[in-house]
């Protein structure tokens, strides 16, 4: 049978005070006043058995252990002694069955092995921190803190011991239950003990709970305290750091000031040393100078003595040389005087010769001067002759022009362009061997009633006929005589007449047309006439006549068809002016290209898609040539008019309507007026009315058409079969003009 014992309350004055004999006591925390429990009521008759005594002894031993351990409070914390004997639930059975109920049925924790209790790490840490922050201890706060620490550790040790006691009681209880099963009689007693024990356990658990709460409170307080300590410590560290920094700064300042001071001292020292060295150098230099001067004085003395000696020697030498020279000179002078006498004689002879030559040269000069005067006289006569010849040339030139007719007509057939060749009309040039003056258009074949086929030809004759191969260069050769007439002071008019596309603009104002070529020739001739005393001023105008209005092609584009220009005639001076137009003084022949480009640009801006402006208006390039002769005082004013007429399509053929019809009517009217004027001029009647006023064009050209002018008309012909009808009309008109003889032209020359 196993020993078992009943637990007893751990009161000081209870039976638990009696220690069991021969049983070692283990450390137990002493019960304090709070966990004092009244002794449980003693169950009657149950404690008399030896086993009961043993149990009682065991209990006493437990109480004593608790009392002993109380003496070691705070020293055995964390190492609670193991229980003296671990009660086993399997130790004994009354009737082969396990004794008592299971632990769980009693509400006791099933863990039977006591767990060693350790003080919380936080409590240990606080102690360490306290030692670190307050190594010397002391102060009311520190003592409070220590007390609290002590209380905490006491509580923890008490808790540990209570837990151990509870575990032991539970174990004893279990043993008791086992034993009670063996003894039914003891059951009541055991039951009573059990109740008592359970009450005790409950009480102890309550105490335990109270301790736990207290321990938690204390831990919280400790945690607060630790936080406060930490912040104090951080403050202290910060303060220490600030102090250290400030000390460092002070130290640095001291170091800096010491360094500055040391540097200044060093600099002073260095300056003193430099001064000393300088003064020593000066002394040295002075000493050196003094020694050098002494040496120099000595050297100078010896040098002057040597120089004196040398001078004496040189003087001696010189005197010796002089004696020799004098001796030589005396002999030389003797021979020279002999030579001079002979030279004087020769010179006298030469002077006589030169005097004779000068006389003959003077005679020559006089003869030359006479010859020069004779030559100048001859030159004057020659120049006079030249001028007279120039006058004669002009007269002859004019007579030639008059003989040729003051109005001449040239015909020009343009070449076929691109694929036009296949649709060309048949044109013949019968007399190409000599002067080409004839042209023949072959018409369509006609069948007579008898079936005979006849081909009608249309022959024409003009002053000159240019075939398709003729270039502008060849054409200009023929008209350059008229340009010369303009320079000689005549009014000249060159027209280009023909249907649209027949080559009028190509002939007149293309890059190598009549206008640029005429200007170049005028410049060249004016240049050559300079030696005959003539200087020329050239003024250019470029206008168009469109719908019987005058437009300035050298003016602003915006003014076209808006600005009104009037034609003014001065009958006395036989001069024509147009109001409000630009006049360009041509300084060089290149300027003419600018004029042509400007006019071309103005006309293309004014053109519309349906209306090619250049075809629908007459353009007139007017070049005034004012010449003065500085020798003879003569003055001449000629005007060269280069006129590109509008297309001469017949109204019916053009099928024009609206504005185009108006344009065409206007063009035809003005061309008809031109024909009328030429016809009237050709009638030869003195004082006959010439209808210049009937159109703007004829009115503008009044002084260039008529007795005082020379006129050339180009009739331009298209080579196309389709244009045959128009071509014939143009050629017929030109023939009429060609048959007209205008009276003798008079040049405008004023004395
Ligand atoms: N002799 C020629 N050699 C080569 N091409 C020519 C010749 N004559 C005229 N042409 C060409 O024929 C075309 C028509 O000529 P141009 O414009 O001079 O005719 P136009 O009679 O002035 O016409 P418009 O009345 O419309 O102004 C142009 O392309 C031009 O270069």
From TrEMBL:
InterPro entries: Kinesin-like_fam, Kinesin_motor_CS, Kinesin_motor_dom, Kinesin_motor_dom_sf, P-loop_NTPase. One of its GO terms (molecular function) is ATP binding. It is found in: Cytoplasm, Cytoskeleton. It comes from the Eukaryota. Residues 1-123, 220-256 are annotated as: Disordered. PROSITE patterns: KINESIN_MOTOR_1, KINESIN_MOTOR_2. Keywords: ATP-binding, Coiled coil, Cytoplasm, Cytoskeleton, Microtubule, Motor protein, Nucleotide-binding. GO terms for cellular component: microtubule. Its main location: cytoplasm. Residues 101-116 have a biased composition (Polar residues). Residues 406-740 form the Kinesin motor domain. SMART domains: KISc. Residues 17-43 have a biased composition (Pro residues). Residues 46-61 have a biased composition (Low complexity). ATP binds at residues 498-505. Residues 309-406 form a coiled coil. Residues 220-248 have a biased composition (Basic and acidic residues). One of its GO terms (biological process) is mitotic spindle assembly. Belongs to the TRAFAC class myosin-kinesin ATPase superfamily. Kinesin family. KIN-14 subfamily. This is Kinesin-like protein.
């Amino acid at each position: 049978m196993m020993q078992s014992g009943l637990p007893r309350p751990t009161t000081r004055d209870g039976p638990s005070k009696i220690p069991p004999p021969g049983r070692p006591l283990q450390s137990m925390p002493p019960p304090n006043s709070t966990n004092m429990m009244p002794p449980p009521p003693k169950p009657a008759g149950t404690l008399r058995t030896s086993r009961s005594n043993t149990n009682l002894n065991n209990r006493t031993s437990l109480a004593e252990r608790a009392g002993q351990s109380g003496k070691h409070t705070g020293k055995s914390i964390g190492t609670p002694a193991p229980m003296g004997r671990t009660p086993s639930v399997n130790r004994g059975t009354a009737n082969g069955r396990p004794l008592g109920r299971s632990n769980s049925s009693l509400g006791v924790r099933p863990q039977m092995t006591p767990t060693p209790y350790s003080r919380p790490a936080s409590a240990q840490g606080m102690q360490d921190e306290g030692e670190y922050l307050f190594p010397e201890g002391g102060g009311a706060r520190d003592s409070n803190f220590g007390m609290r620490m002590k209380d905490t550790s006491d509580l923890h040790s008490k808790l540990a011991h209570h837990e151990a006691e509870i575990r032991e009681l539970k174990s004893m209880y279990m043993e008791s239950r086992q034993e009670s099963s063996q003894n039914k009689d003891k059951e009541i007693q055991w039951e009573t003990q059990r109740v008592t024990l359970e009450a005790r356990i409950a009480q102890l658990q309550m105490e335990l709970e109270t301790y736990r709460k207290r321990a938690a409170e204390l831990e919280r307080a400790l945690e607060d305290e630790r936080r406060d300590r930490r912040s104090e410590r951080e403050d202290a560290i910060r303060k220490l750091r600030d102090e250290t920094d400030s000390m460092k700064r002070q130290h640095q300042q001291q170091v800096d000031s010491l360094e500055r001071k040391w540097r200044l001292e060093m600099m002073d020292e260095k300056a003193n040393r430099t001064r000393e060295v300088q003064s020593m150098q000066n002394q040295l230099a002075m000493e050196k100078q003094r020694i050098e001067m002494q040496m120099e004085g000595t050297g100078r003395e010896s040098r002057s003595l040597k120089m004196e000696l040398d001078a004496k020697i040189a003087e001696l030498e010189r005197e010796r040389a002089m004696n020799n020279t004098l001796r030589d000179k005396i002999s030389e002078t003797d021979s020279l005087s002999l030579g001079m006498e002979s030279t004087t004689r020769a010179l006298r002879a030469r002077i006589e010769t030169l005097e004779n030559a000068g006389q003959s040269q003077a005679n020559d000069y006089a003869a030359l001067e006479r010859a020069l005067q004779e030559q100048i006289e001859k030159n004057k006569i020659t120049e006079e002759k030249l001028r007279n010849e120039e006058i004669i040339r002009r007269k002859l030139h004019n007579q030639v022009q008059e003989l040729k007719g003051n109005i001449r007509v040239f015909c020009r057939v343009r070449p076929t362009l691109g694929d036009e060749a296949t649709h060309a009309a048949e044109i013949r040039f019968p007399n190409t061997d000599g002067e080409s003056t004839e042209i023949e258009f072959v018409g369509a074949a006609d069948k007579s009633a008898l079936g005979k086929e006849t081909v009608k030809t249309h022959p024409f004759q003009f002053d000159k006929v240019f075939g398709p191969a003729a270039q502008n260069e060849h054409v200009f050769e023929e008209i350059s005589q008229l340009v010369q007439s303009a320079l000689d002071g005549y009014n000249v008019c060159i027209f280009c007449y023909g249907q649209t596309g027949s080559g009028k603009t190509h002939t007149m104002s293309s890059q190598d047309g009549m206008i640029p070529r005429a200007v170049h020739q005028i410049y060249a001739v004016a240049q050559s006439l300079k030696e005959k005393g003539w200087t020329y001023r050239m003024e250019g105008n470029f206008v168009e006549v469109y719908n019987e209005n005058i437009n300035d092609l050298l003016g602003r584009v915006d003014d076209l068809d808006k600005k009104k220009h009037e034609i003014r005639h001065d009958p006395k001076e036989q001069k024509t002016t147009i109001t409000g137009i630009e006049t360009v003084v041509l300084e060089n022949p290149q300027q003419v290209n600018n004029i042509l480009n400007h006019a071309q640009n103005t006309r293309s801006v004014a053109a519309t898609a349906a209306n090619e402006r250049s075809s629908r208006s007459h353009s007139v390039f007017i070049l005034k040539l004012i010449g003065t002769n500085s020798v003879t005082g003569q003055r001449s004013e000629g005007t060269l008019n280069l006129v590109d007429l509008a297309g001469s399509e017949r109204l019916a053929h053009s099928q024009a309507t609206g504005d185009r019809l108006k344009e065409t009517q206007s063009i035809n009217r003005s061309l008809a007026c031109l024909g009328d004027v030429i016809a009237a001029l050709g009638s030869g009647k003195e004082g006959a009315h010439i209808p210049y006023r009937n159109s703007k064009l004829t009115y503008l050209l009044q002084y260039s058409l008529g007795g005082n002018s020379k006129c050339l008309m180009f009739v331009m012909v298209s080579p196309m079969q389709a244009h045959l009808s128009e071509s014939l009309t143009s050629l017929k008109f030109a023939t009429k003009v060609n048959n007209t003889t205008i009276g003798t032209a008079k040049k405008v020359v004023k004395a």
